[in-house]
Specification:
Helix content is about 40%, strand content about 25%. It is globular and about 60 Å long. The chain has helices at about 10-25, 35-40, 50-60, 65-70, 90, 100-110, 160-165, 235-245, 245-250, 295-315, 320-350, 355-370, 375-385; strands spanning about 5-10, 30, 45-50, 70, 75-80, 80-85, 95-100, 125-130, 135-140, 145-150, 150-155, 175-190, 200, 205-215, 215-225, 260-270, 275, 280, 285-290.
Length: about 400
């Protein structure tokens, strides 16, 4: 087969890039190793920055999000059960949107499916001649071997995907911080305890109250990496949330049976550069952020924005500058989001070496945030999403 852009990975990044390219008159083929049901069932982020919302509208994928999503104008921070609100919309003029990644992925899949995309359940994907003018991709589907010749390859296949692995060890540098704890998440069909998110810093560890809709809630508690799900029945999780979130949130919390539980490790990771020849990395293939601050999906969207602009300029008038600048431009935004996520994670979590002094520093910084409009503005600007 022949196409202009081969996209590896049929998650939100790959689907969004394919749709934007299509609207710009650029052909693409999306390869995904899992089934559509599997991709759409993955439980991931649900907080979208304003620029991500605008990009989904640009792609024609925003109609249901606009109907069913929950606009958020602020966020709550809690320390030892006492909370305060940061008026993000008042400080920045922008809102966030709560809309689950599972729903967003369904919307994008519905759009690209009209072009018989993606190609699901492909195996043994390999990338070839990345430094040449005509790279190509090989894979197997239904037992048969296939080849796609293309002009560019977009690696949107995540942290464990083949795209970044196709860059030689000497061809890039990885930066990583692995955190000594994880998030135990519970999803339940119960109304949220508050109409906005609550991030809680407690001496027992971090907790987060969030939602996917007005009738579906997502909660997290910080746990050590050696914890096992079977040791955390639903009732124990609800009890721990009530302690860490504080009395007011606990009073508004509706308990119910979990429909999904998982423990996710936390890491910060960046791979530089985000390009090798005709291969361009986007999303989790190039960077990971801890979920504190909800930047992962939003960073993937900003990568797609820059890459879409670069590719369409190349096809439109032969401009090479966007392609050459893609990695540096994307990384400038990535590192700022990494900084915010690292700072927010450090502020809200209890680390193994958090002694009495470190604990006092966390409490003092939260108290400073509570009383300083300038400090709140800095956080609000980063939380709602920096401009492209």
């Amino acid at each position: 087969m022949r196409t202009q852009v081969a996209i590896i990975g049929g998650g939100p990044a790959g689907l969004l890039l394919s749709q934007l390219l299509h609207l710009s008159g650029v052909d693409s083929i999306v390869l995904e190793r899992q089934t559509r049901d599997y991709v759409e069932a993955r439980i991931r982020a649900g907080m979208l920055e304003q620029v991500t919302v605008d990009l989904l509208d640009q792609a024609g994928a925003g109609a249901r999000m606009r109907r069913e999503g929950l606009p958020h104008g602020g966020v709550n921070l809690a320390s030892e059960g006492e909370s305060f609100r940061i008026d993000v919309e008042g400080l920045t003029g922008k809102q966030m949107m709560v809309y689950g990644q599972t729903e967003l992925t369904k919307d994008l899949n519905d759009l690209v499916a009209t072009r018989d995309q993606p190609l699901f359940e492909v195996a043994d994907v390999a990338l070839h001649d990345l430094e040449g003018a005509v790279p190509y991709v090989t894979y197997r589907k239904d037992g048969a071997a296939h080849r796609i010749d293309c002009d560019f390859i977009a690696g949107c296949d995540g942290y464990h995907g083949v795209s970044r692995q196709s860059v030689p060890v000497a061809g890039g540098q990885a930066f990583e911080r692995v955190y000594p704890f994880g998030w135990l998440g519970i999803l339940a069909d119960v109304p949220p305890c508050d109409h906005e998110l609550i991030y809680a810093n407690h001496e027992r560890g971090f907790a987060l109250a969030s939602m996917r809709s007005n009738v579906r809630s997502r909660y997290y508690v910080q746990v050590s990496l050696d914890e096992k799900l079977e040791d955390w029945p639903d009732e124990r999780i609800w009890d721990e949330l009530a302690i860490r979130l504080g009395d007011k949130a606990a009073a508004g919390m509706t308990r119910g049976p979990s429909i999904e539980k998982s423990i996710a490790p936390l890491r910060s990771f960046v791979f530089e550069p985000m390009r090798r020849g005709r291969l361009f990395l986007a999303g989790d293939a190039a960077h990971i952020v801890p979920p504190t601050g909800a930047k992962g999906l939003n960073l993937a969207a900003s990568d797609v924005h820059y890459l879409h602009e670069a590719i369409t300029a190349w096809y439109g008038n032969g401009a090479q500058a966007g392609l050459d600048d893609y990695s540096a431009k994307a990384l400038a935004r990535v590192w700022k989001a990494e900084r915010f996520s690292w700072w927010f994670t450090s502020l809200m979590h209890r680390f193994p070496d958090t002694d009495a002094f470190a604990r006092k520093m966390q409490v003092a910084e939260l108290d400073y945030l509570r009383g300083s409009k300038a400090a709140q503005t800095v956080m609000a600007e980063n939380y709602v999403g920096l401009p492209f």
